[in-house]
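Hey Z.,

So I finally got round to the zinc ion thing we talked about over coffee. Here's the setup:
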Amino acid sequence: MKILVGKFTLEANEHVPMMCDIEDVAMSYGADSLTHMQLGDVFDRDDIEVVPTICADAACSGVMRRRCFDHIEGTILNGIRTNLADLDGIYLHLHGASYVECIGSGEMHLLAAIRQMVGPYLPIAVACDPHGNLTEEYVHNCTFIRSYREAPHTDIAETVQRTCRELIRFIEQPCRVTPVYRKLPLILGGEQSVSTDEPVRSINDFMNHLEEDPRILSASWHVGYLRHDCAEAGCGVVVIPSDPRYAETAEHAADELASFVWERRHEFHYTGTTAEPDEALAMALACKGRPAFITDSGDNVTSGAMGANTFVLQQVLEIQNLDQKVLFAAIHDDNTCHKLGEFAVGTTCKISLGMALDELSSPIELDVEIVAHGRQEGTHMYGEHGDYGPLATVKIVDRPVWIVITDNNHSFVEEHQLDACGVPWRDFEVIVVKQGYIHPELKAAGALSVMSLTDGATPQNTKLIKFKRIMRPMYPIDEI
Ligand SMILES: [Zn+2]
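And the result:
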């Protein structure tokens, strides 16, 4: 059998000043693209021919330029067109929260174009992120669609491989099922839907329970994505029957799952320790163990923010007689990062840190010593490998403050990424990272993790975000 594969992922935050263009996307093609798709050995069979197209991983960024999306979509569609005569199925890894200028959802545009090309019956299987927005049309264009259950996403590879196995089954045993979709008038931030915590744990258990029925092939729920204002924003559930005979059972299960989530709408909450910025900093500085992590949640690069805010740095610099060692990993300022690249380790120089995009990223004049030059490493849990740009680590002269400065908003969420900064980060009392919820490796490595409710492009209080295009009424923006 012949299976075409591709990956396109982007969380598009419209509240950042950058547009996502070709240079902001980690692109790989052909056989190389397969190494970023977490496919495992699922297609390693003599009777399966894989047709790779593209892996376009934009991670979290701004709204995508039309020309960039046209390139990604065109590459996938060209692959399909070339192989159309003997193609048996299509596997796609999509995020669900892309936004493209003049188009809107890139995933929906892509799937509609594919369906138009291959017709209504060719099996299409999609693995996706639960922080994406769905519509009935999007879901109906898929034969099989399943989202990761865990947030943070520790089960991406498992979801990808499960999806691929189901695709193989749909090709080997042709069976025309229609996924059932239910949209909920509920919009949530990712920081309120961590899967080790309630109510997500119970929702995942309930989906496992539904899947114990052999008539139900798969149950998924989508938290949705709220960093751009669009009609499809919000929660949804998808249930897929194992056979068309069980379509009614799947409809019933989808209603049950939708009700189960809806009845728990008041239970979503921040996981872990959360505090206003001054209190969060005080808690981290007072922590007996080390390191204490502060997540700068308003500038969360894992949800598309620029990572350029200097607000927490200003907070730290205002403390007179600071005894504790503080590390920022990282602050994004491309000009300063490139300037530092010209100086040798050990050099002292003056820098201006802050991209002046807004008040929160105001530049700060600093005398610094260059401690290390390095390269940013990929986030393994997201399937990233390779080089993600330069970094320079500096120490502020006469202050116990170290700053990793980067030329992009790539995230630092795993230990090896901190190791690459050239400082013994485990010895620091406080480490400030640009995340919302702390990611699992750093959580395990820290004596404390506190989410600082900072302002920025990724504010945590959903009620403060101005929406004009979403479905209304919508909880918790409206009381329902
Ligand atoms: Zn996600």
